[in-house]
Amino acid sequence: MRCSSGHAFDIARQGYVSLLRGGRNPIHGDDAAMIAAREELFARGPYRLVEQAIAGIAARVARSRPDPVIVDLGAGIGNYLAAALEKAPASHGIGIDVSKPAARRLARAHPRAGAIIADVWSGLPLASECADVAMTVFAPRNAVETARILRPGGTWLIATPAARHLAELARIDGVLGIDERKGERLAATLGDRFVEQEIHEVRATVDVTPEEASLVLAMGPTARHLDPQQRARAVESAFEAAAATTHLPLTLSVDIAEYRLAAPPAR
Ligand SMILES: C[S@@+](CC[C@H](N)C(=O)[O-])C[C@H]1O[C@@H](n2cnc3c(N)ncnc32)[C@H](O)[C@@H]1O
């Protein structure tokens, strides 16, 4: 790939392009084990409800716009982006993640999606006003850059865990609980660039096997705080507390905030 100033960037054999700025990048994102756990869990289905809810909103917005482009920021393995593209057949997608193992999956996520390795905190390698929908699903939010890449009237979907998300698994120290003030803080970080349209609440209980419960802990931030034995204890303790043997009823509680890019102030 070549940019307008003549810089060349290699497309990796696995299909992604690294557009990380600077030399050594201190942020690596999710590691190979976390990404593998994420891929296995999503293939098994307990998060399908969340995936379909986010994809449905993104596709609804995309279908209302000409030649729509959907950008997923911190896209992980690209399952949310792929599901949205599937529901909006005229759309194209770009997935961005700083993690190389994620980018490898992302490159295969959907025929209409491209995969880029970049750090959302150091400026997005995308043109201004190129996207109709931006999605940030359990990933870092850069409001200034997201506002820049959205076309006028564009939409930003931000999915965050709400109170009691995965609560049954949070019975031992080190399993991350949900900050109850997250919604309040989210609004504060968006400033006046975005106007809230709606908060879509996904609330469900899904039955998960012990393996699936382990995958949930292995793919998320808890994997950084607890080793595999400690995570196994968290799963055991959750099953014991629920007097469950084969399946644990697990709470999914996710808020999907839909924001519209504010019109620039009149001069
Ligand atoms: C909790 S995962 C969520 C992934 C995906 N959106 C999902 O919900 O399945 C957070 C993702 O953000 C990526 N990430 C973390 N920091 C990042 C950064 N500064 N720039 C780009 N991606 C980042 C991680 O590599 C990881 O894939």
Automatic annotation (TrEMBL):
SUPFAM superfamilies: S-adenosyl-L-methionine-dependent methyltransferases (SSF53335). InterPro entries: Methyltransf_25, rRNA_m1G-MeTrfase_A_prd, SAM-dependent_MTases_sf. GO terms for molecular function: metal ion binding; methyltransferase activity. CDD domains: AdoMet_MTases (cd02440). It holds the Pfam family Methyltransf_25. Keywords: Metal-binding, S-adenosyl-L-methionine, Zinc. Zn(2+) binds at C3, H7. Residues 70-154 form the Methyltransferase domain. S-adenosyl-L-methionine binds at Y47, H165. This is Methyltransferase domain-containing protein.
